[in-house]
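look at this:
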Amino acid sequence: MHQWNRPVDAANYNGWAPSNWMSHNHMRHPGSQGSQLDILIDQGKDDQFLSDGQLLPDNFTVCTEKKIPVVFRLQEGYDHSYYFIATFIADNIRHHAKYLKA
């Protein structure tokens, strides 16, 4: 499993063993956690983690097979910095809020 898909200390994360928390990994089981939600992803085009292959946005193509809507916005001129997060956080909060209010 890629390091970005697991807790920092998997052995002690909420007392869970990896076999327990893996069932909550939506990349392994998209659409299996109840209500169908659409996914919003903002990604900085200049993100060093992306160019190094540490972020795997192409893995979300499995969502199209499962008929899960994904909006992937590759943001020109942004990296993995605070400014990237600060710029797009309001959109992402609104996205989550529409489901929390439903």
